[in-house]
Amino acid sequence: MTAYAVFNAGSSSLKFQLFEPGANGALSPFVRGKLEGLGSEPQFIARDGSGKMLGERTWSASDGLDHEQGTMYVLEWAREHLGGRRLAAIGHRVVHGGRDFSGPALIDDAVLAKLEAYVPLAPLHQPHNLKPIRIVRRHRPDLKQVASFDTGFHQTQPEIAQLFALPYDYAERGVRRYGFHGLSYAYVASVLGRCAPGLETGKAIVAHLGSGASLCAMVNGRSVSSTMGFSALDGLPMGTRCGSLDPAVVFYLMRVDKLDAAAVEKLLYSKSGLLGVSGLSNDMRALREAAAGGHERARLAIDLFVYRICREMGALTAVMGGLDGIVFTAGIGENDPATRAEVLRGMEWAGLKIDEGANRAGGPLLTLAGGPQAWVIPTDEELMIARETAAMLAAR
Ligand code: ADP
What we know:
The structure is a single chain. By secondary structure, the chain is an alpha/beta fold. It has helices at residues 67-80, 109-117, 126-139, 159-162, 168-172, 182-195, 248-255, 261-270, 273-278, 284-292, 296-320, 330-335, 337-346, 356-360, 381-394; strands at residues 2-9, 14-21, 27-36, 43-48, 53-58, 86-94, 105-106, 144-149, 203-209, 213-219, 222-226, 325-329, 373-376. The chain folds into two domains: 2-149, 2-Layer Sandwich (Nucleotidyltransferase, domain 5); 182-381, ATPase, nucleotide binding domain (Nucleotidyltransferase, domain 5, 2-Layer Sandwich). The mean pLDDT is 96. The structure holds adenosine-5'-diphosphate. Adenosine-5'-diphosphate is lined by residues 210-212, 239, 283-285, 288, 330-332, 335-336.
């Protein structure tokens, strides 16, 4: 039997899952694990599909486990836990596929060179995503590897949705809106017909509200516009990212506060958003609790988050020329009825009527009959990568 591995690499972590095809051909995970703390005190943990612990290990800082050793530890551990299955390929999450890739890519030297060229477009993520690909290629050149992109799903957007009003040669050099969270949106689009019947052929706004947050306008299940742009910094305020910002604020920070590019980057990516406004936390659960206890800036941070979601939903509704439904997904979208209720009340002008009881109970349908619908659909980016990897191999 065949198995597929999915790797999702960050700056100091490598999350992985192992998938197998079931009787009906649908893929399901039989191992989930992660190696965290690379560069300090790495910890490895892995569980089976039912949550039972399969492996656990820690290293001290003096062990000096680097990315190369860590990646190979995960790969070798995975190979020892295939239970007789054959590892057909690794699918990797890669944040940027530029304009070249609207779907997954089988890794070879030419593809890898193109992906390297996108590092300046996503300097905080792309190098970390590519590192394990290169390491595995060095040690196991025979093992097929596939890249799945966060940008791919948005390549269906019309040029006007991707263009900045800069001199046009910047657009030709790649300075344009790409949109991210594409694997999450692709997964949601793939289940719309089953989970939100009718929306797969309608005008939908999908709200991926997690630590990172964005909205995608979908017509007939295809992306026509999104709130993230050139980077994953644009659009909605997020846990620690500011979202859309008048670029003149950056000049101010550089001229008046004398911040250099790295300091501005740190401020906008890591100290802003819900954390920056509240001065308390980037975690919605903590903010809800504090706001309930009277913490004014926790309330303000939440209100700003909701205000900006509704504002962008209005803009995306205009872009689509109407709205048939809203889908909530990711950590906040799936688990926080209060945020969903506040957003839906803010969108009543579009004709939707919230079903307060259904919303408190977690849906999946959150609205009463008549008017646009709203749904909760749990996302699954890893499953989407596994599907793309399996499909890529099947097509060869
Ligand atoms: P990521 O995968 O990008 O780290 P998630 O999709 O897990 O992010 O979302 C994390 C966010 O979801 C955090 O703000 C967290 O507080 C929020 N969240 C998770 N569960 C709940 C809950 N029960 N109520 C409110 N917010 C929640």
